């Protein structure tokens, strides 16, 4: 294994999600698109972008919302599986997920950056959380519950 060059996520006031196993920063809470997903281990979040992940082999999987081409994503530092990335979706309505990432909530730890409390106090309504809640409500009818099918065991 060569030297790892991790991308750092500068403090913006947003909560930063880290790998539960090795504390590598992975994403900002402000990059969450939806918290309504689930994976075989429970809750999962859809993220618009991530750092410090490796992608695995391309794979076609039948999910509750139809057939998707995905690849697993792994922590670059400890190699644990974090979730998957959508590469393609058969259903037109599901294509908004293509190029985006699912992270298993169970492998994440959320760490508020020190500036978060101050920023929330200064702006009165938190750092963008209200915006995300609104978006979730308006997109209620395409509520997702993607699951890897149970016949997809390695
Ligand atoms: Zn890790």
Distance between the ends: 25 Å
Question: Could you report the average pLDDT, rounded to the nearest whole number?
Answer: 82
Largest sheet: 6 strands, antiparallel
Number of strands: 9
CATH-defined fold name: Metal Binding Protein, Guanine Nucleotide Exchange Factor, Chain A
- Output the structural class: mainly beta
Total discrete domains: 1
Low-confidence stretches: 125-143, 148-154
Assembly form of the protein: single chain
SSE series: EEEEEEEEEHH
- CATH class categorisation: Mainly Beta
Overview of this structure, please?
The chain is mostly beta strands and 154 residues long. Strand 3 and strand 4 (42-47) form a beta hairpin. The strands form two sheets. It has a six-stranded antiparallel beta sheet. It has a three-stranded antiparallel beta sheet with strand order 2-1-9. The longest helix has 10 residues, at 129-138. It has one domain: Peptide methionine sulfoxide reductase (Metal Binding Protein, Guanine Nucleotide Exchange Factor, Chain A), CATH 2.170.150.20. 12% of the residues lie in helices and 40% in strands. It has two helices and nine strands, in the order βββββββββαα. 27% of the residues are buried. Mean pLDDT is 82; it is low at 125-143 and 148-154. The radius of gyration is 16 Å and the shape is globular. The structure holds zinc ion. Zinc ion binds next to loops.
Please give a quick description of this structure:
This protein is mainly beta and 154 residues long. Helices cover 12% and strands 40% of the residues.
């Amino acid at each position: 294994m060569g030297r790892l060059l991790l991308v750092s996520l500068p403090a913006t006031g947003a909560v930063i999600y880290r790998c539960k196993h090795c504390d590598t920063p992975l994403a900002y809470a402000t990059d969450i698109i939806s918290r309504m997903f689930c994976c075989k281990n429970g809750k999962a979040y859809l993220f618009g972008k991530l750092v410090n992940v490796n992608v695995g082999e391309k794979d076609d999987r039948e999910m509750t919302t139809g057939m998707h081409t995905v690849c697993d994503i792994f922590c670059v530092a400890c190699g644990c599986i974090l979730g998957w990335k959508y590469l393609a979706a058969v259903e037109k309505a599901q294509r908004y997920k293509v190029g985006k990432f699912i992270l298993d909530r169970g492998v994440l730890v959320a760490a508020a950056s020190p500036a978060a409390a101050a920023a929330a106090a200064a702006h009165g309504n938190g750092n963008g959380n209200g915006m995300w809640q609104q978006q979730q409500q308006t997109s209620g009818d395409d509520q997702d519950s993607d699951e890897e099918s149970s016949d997809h065991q390695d």
